[in-house]
Amino acid sequence: MTKKRTNGKKEQFIRPDKSKLPLIAGIVLIVLALGSVYYQFTGTATQSEVAYFGEPVTTERSYLGRFVSMTAIEPLVEEGQIKFPLADLERYSIVSFSEKNDQGTVVPLMAYITPTGRLFVGSSMCEPCRGQTFSLAGETLFCDTCRTTYTIEDHQFISGAVTCGSFPPVNMNGTVVDGMVVIDLQGVLNWRTRAL
Hints:
Elements: H1 9-14, H2 21-42, E1 67-69, E2 71-72, E3 76-78, E4 81-85, H3 86-92, E5 94-100, E6 106-113, E7 119-123, E8 134-137, E9 140-143, E10 149-151, E11 157-159, H4 162-165, E12 175-177, E13 180-184, H5 185-189
């Protein structure tokens, strides 16, 4: 008969406990592996989940590896519309201009073509920081003042100042008619900064 060795009370307190680090590390690795598998199967937002700015108006393009600053243009204001050539967007990628609202406040505006060929025309103000210039940085819209970034296709907050990320530029639903980008002047006349 073999005698089973039992530890005395003294040995329980003198002998160091086994490390739980390998167990914890193993659990963390399993959780990361499962998370990775889940992400691969579900992915991020698919194209059908993105709230695009209307239908494509021109060819797709890529801004990856590029930083494109705004170019100022002078649009034509007539018959209740603000107009400028689509060719200006094709040439400069992102343009800026301004018009006064019905209270005499200057409303900074911008327009750009998204990578999927869609048109964004709207406010060019990061309202909390009062930044009025944006750039296209890779696949993001970038506030030049506070460095807040948004998705280029639908202005979802990515990084930067959380307060600014809550107030992305406002879409004014521009259209393309006979090679001209057209926005309704009334939308600009009614524009106000949102309450913070």
